[in-house]
Design brief:
The chain is α+β, with helices and mostly antiparallel strands. The chain has helices at residues 3-32, 122-125, 143-147, 170-193, 199-213, 215-230, 232-241, 246-260, 269-272, 275-287, 325-357, 366-392, 395-426, and strands at 37-41, 45-46, 53-58, 63-67, 76-81, 84-88, 105-108, 113-117, 130-141, 155-165, 312-313, 316-317.
């Protein structure tokens, strides 16, 4: 990759980082604008089955106490019915990552926050569409009372957060039914039958099963990609021949595709057909395998206790983003490195095709030079971008992507060997 392309790549990558830091700083400023209390919901609009998460930030200079009503929900939840707000009630079920605290009260010290994860009560409270509000009644204790200077009468303050639950769109409903729910159940099934209920081995097996299901369409797509590479010299010759006649160029190009049985969009399928599975894995790991997902399990798995899932794998917590910097950079390096190897295999194949035709021409066509530059740039840009995303998402997603990429590399090598054997027989 020359200096010009490298400079362009660095500019694009810097813009991505600046946009990310801008929104992060903007969110931080919004939190810091309120010097007292901040009571927020993770979303303003949920869909049935989404996990409701509320956060209380205490910047009041006082200690806040809340009554612990476990196994009932910790705060007061209301749903709007007509013009009135109806108080709802729910108790935590035993199935899920949840245990009641023995404390009768919860304390939130000044400068700290408390997250209310409604997973244990999610399906009971928020399964219906409508408008909801949650009230947190705070009992504050003054600093003077804590220091023993003198008694202070406790004061109560009510914080309110409102949000809505709306119907899923057709694409969300389709993705939930066709991808999310089957993959979730298969993943839970694997953790149930595997020794130690380990999520890491479950993800690896899931990856192999998904790649096996997609083996035939992926293999055909890779063959299409190979065929496109093989006819590149002829395509470039057509571009040179019909440089001033775009209509004729299009006609001759389509004839060439038809003659060689090539679909110009077929090479994109290996990535496209994996996206729904990648989306489902990402959603499962982001939302968490807890009580909020129990209602999505099929009948034979309803009795499986999700709190028995072991998310530890090779020193990582697969359900979270590592806080330790050295642990956090390992998944991006592995994912980016495997993606780089994939791009390298593809580019070396393309370069070989270009070298095969250069002896027959005095000067390599400009289009081929540009194509080689673009491919070289993508070889570096794509792995870096994927590594950047892996740095920000749970380790389990990186594990899935890494295993899938390694499987794809093996598939690519098998295809290359098969093509070489066919070519040698034809020669």
């Amino acid at each position: 990759m020359n200096r010009k392309n490298l400079g362009l790549f660095l500019i694009v990558f810097a813009i991505v980082l600046l946009i990310n830091s801008f929104f992060a700083s903007k969110n931080q400023e919004e939190v810091n604008q309120n010097p007292s209390f901040e009571f927020t919901s993770s979303k303003s609009i949920y869909h049935p089955g989404d996990k409701v998460v509320l956060t209380l930030v205490n910047n009041s200079g006082q200690t806040v106490t809340l009554t612990e009503d476990c196994p009932a929900e910790p705060l007061d939840v209301y749903r709007k019915e007509g013009a009135e707000w109806k108080l709802l009630a729910a108790e935590a079920e035993e199935n899920g990552l949840f245990a009641c605290s023995e404390l009768a009260q919860m304390e939130v010290l000044n400068g700290t926050s408390l997250v209310f994860n409604y997973a244990p009560w999610n399906q009971q409270l928020f399964s219906d569409q409508g408008e909801y509000k949650v009230e947190a009644v705070l009992e504050t204790t003054s600093v003077s009372e804590e220091a023993g200077v003198g008694p202070a009468a406790p004061t109560n303050r009510t914080l309110i957060v409102e949000f809505s639950v709306a119907e899923r769109g057709i694409f969300r409903s389709f993705g939930l039914a066709v991808f999310y729910k089957p993959i979730l159940n298969f993943l839970v099934f694997l953790t149930d039958v595997l020794p130690g209920n380990n999520l890491g081995w479950s993800i690896i097996i899931l990856t192999l099963v998904v790649r096996a299901i997609l083996f035939v369409p992926t293999y055909r797509s890779l063959e299409q990609q190979k065929s496109m590479q093989e006819i590149q010299p002829k395509l470039q010759a057509l571009k040179e021949k019909y440089k001033g006649d775009q209509q004729k160029l299009g006609e001759e190009t389509m004839k060439l595709y038809k003659e060689h049985g090539v679909n110009p969009f077929g090479s994109c399928l290996p990535i496209l057909i994996q996206l729904p599975f990648l989306w489902a894995i990402f959603q499962i790991l982001r939302e968490g395998l807890d009580a909020s997902t129990t209602f999505l399990l099929y009948a034979p798995l309803q009795d499986f206790h999700l709190d028995t899932i072991n998310v530890a794998f090779l020193g990582f917590d697969l359900s979270t983003v590592p806080t330790n910097f050295y642990l956090r950079i390992i998944p991006p390096i592995l994912v980016g490195g495997s993606q780089f190897l994939t791009m390298k295999l593809t580019q070396s194949r393309q370069k070989k095709k270009i070298k095969d035709i250069t002896p027959s021409v005095k000067k390599e066509p400009n289009q081929m030079k540009e194509m080689e530059k673009a491919t070289g740039m993508m070889m570096y840009m794509m792995p870096v971008m994927i590594a950047f995303f892996a740095y920000s998402y749970p380790v389990g997603l990186s594990l899935y992507w890494f295993c899938s990429t390694v499987f794809g590399i093996g598939q690519q090598l098998v295809l290359n060997k098969r093509k070489e054997q066919l070519n040698s027989k034809q020669a």
